[in-house]
Design a protein that fits this description.
Blueprint lengths: L30 H16 L3 H8 L3 H8 L7 H11 L3 H15 L4
Helix pairs in contact: 1-5, 2-3, 2-4
Length: about 110
């Protein structure tokens, strides 16, 4: 079976709002993109820029950007660092991802 991969680019992620889905219903959402959306929502709720979050989590600023855009996927260690910096538990962050996948982008 031949698998096809599609990459979706957003022109300006900064201008999107949390209540507007990044993709139309029916499209299959990659969990990396869902994690990025959940991270961005939590970061904005905390009032952090990407640079501020990176500083608090002791990671590179560009890595936060790559995670939020779904280009890189964080390790469990990074998830723990991000959660601590955001003042939530790692399980709450992962739960946000699960909710995004199940409510906004789930397609059977």
């Amino acid at each position: 079976m031949l698998a096809t991969t599609f990459t979706i680019y957003c022109e300006d992620v900064r201008s999107s709002t949390a209540d507007i889905p990044l993709f139309r219903r029916g499209w299959r959402l990659d969990t990396g993109l869902a994690f990025g959306k959940a991270l961005r929502q939590r970061r904005k709720e905390a009032g952090f820029t990407q640079e501020q979050l990176a500083l608090e989590a002791e990671i590179q600023r560009n890595y936060v950007s790559l995670i939020e855009r779904g280009i890189n996927q964080p390790t469990i260690t990074i998830i723990f660092k991000l959660a601590k910096a955001l003042g939530c538990t790692p399980s709450a962050l992962v739960s946000d991802v699960e909710n995004i996948v199940n409510t906004e982008f789930h397609h059977s």
